[in-house]
Amino acid sequence: MNAVNQPTRLDDGREVEIRRIGPQDHAAKRDFIMALSPRMRRYRFLEQINEPSEELLKRLTDIDHVDDEAFVAIARDETGAGRIVGVSRYSVGNAPDSCEIALVVLDEWRPSNLKQVLLGRLTEAARARGLKRMVSVDSTDNRYMHEFAPAHGFDCVPDPEDSTQVLYIRTL
């Protein structure tokens, strides 16, 4: 895996920079969320949001990088201006050896292997943190995760607390 902040070439030839998210990404994260299709926003947040609140943006970008970690994939245009095109994150909850994850890329980046690259970076960070299990909570109609997760070592089980959701669980 490439070092943080180094360009990563994807299988479709495009390059991205993958690095930790930070407070400086507040505006770019807003732009990223707004660039997601309504369906992908619903899949990511498990509810329909029209626009992210300032509180949500702060919670997503101002993190401790210990119990919460997140990586952004930045694509640069010909002028060098960058935008977020994908995000992976984990959050440690009540179980100290387990984390809940989220992973989303812009629709036009789904055909590339960006999601796999982001999951790889997140997995490295989770293992380095000593975590033993990743869990993704997803809508039962999220066909993208239904295809992606099992192909990357996640088992699918019904969410015992919500019949409209499933849990994808991966042992690290």
Which properties best describe this structure?
globular, Aminopeptidase, alpha+beta, eight-stranded mixed sheet, Acyl_CoA_acyltransferase, 172 residues, 5 helices, 32% strand, GNAT_dom, 29% helix
Helices and strands in order:
Elements: E1 7-9, E2 15-20, H1 26-35, H2 38-45, H3 54-61, E3 68-76, E4 82-92, E5 98-105, H4 114-128, E6 133-139, H5 143-151, E7 155-158, E8 165-171
Parallel strand pairs: 5-6
Antiparallel strand pairs: 1-2, 2-3, 3-4, 4-5, 6-8, 7-8
Helix pairs in contact: 1-3
Overview of the structural elements:
With 172 residues, the chain is α+β, with helices and mostly antiparallel strands. The chain has one domain (6-171): Gcn5-related N-acetyltransferase (GNAT) (Aminopeptidase). Helices cover 29% and strands 32% of the residues. It has 5 helices and 8 strands. The protein has helices at 26-35, 38-45, 54-61, 114-128, 143-151; strands at 7-9, 15-20, 68-76, 82-92, 98-105, 133-139, 155-158, 165-171. It has an 8-stranded mixed beta sheet with strand order 1-2-3-4-5-6-8-7, sandwiched between helices. Strand 3 (68-76) and strand 4 form a beta hairpin. Helix 1 crosses helix 3 (54-61). The longest helix is centred in the last third of the chain and has 15 residues, at 114-128. It starts with 6 loop residues before the first strand and ends with a strand. It comes from Solilutibacter pythonis. Keywords: Transferase. Residues 16-172 form the N-acetyltransferase domain.
